[in-house]
Design brief:
alpha+beta, four-stranded antiparallel beta sheet, two-stranded antiparallel ribbon, 2 helices, about 30% strand, isopeptide bond
């Protein structure tokens, strides 16, 4: 019984990497179009839309793709057409660190001017 178990375990461990390995797109050819928010001056969020198609030499279809945007991994959405994808990402136009620093400076300035008025 243990010999059969060992044989099955060995077969499982040998076949596991083969069964979970994914296919690789060979010689990818990408065509893309990008769009962005046209009124970025008055917008608090900027939106980036990327539409692209992917053709592989080995004819892979419907691959799960991900994008690295500012250190975050985000999925690309599959469209109705084969090998066509879309990514829509939005982000603030003004960084939150800048807003925090400006708020701290304004609060300090208001407190400083009020202190001067109280001491006068």
């Amino acid at each position: 019984m243990t010999a059969i178990f060992k044989a099955l375990l060995t077969a499982f461990l040998v076949l596991l990497p083969v069964s979970i390995s994914g296919d690789t797109c060979l010689a990818p050819q990408v065509t893309s179009q990008t769009y962005t928010t046209p009124e970025a001056v008055v917008s608090f969020d900027t939106v980036l839309i990327v539409e692209f198609s992917l053709a592989c030499k080995n004819n892979l279809k419907n691959i799960n793709l991900y994008a690295d945007v500012a250190g975050r991994t985000l999925p690309a959405t599959k469209t109705g057409e084969p090998n066509k994808y879309q990514g829509i990402w939005s982000g603030p136009l003004i960084q939150s660190e800048f807003v925090a620093a400006m708020t701290a400076i304004i609060v300090w300035w208001m407190a400083y001017t009020q202190r001067g008025k109280l001491l006068a």
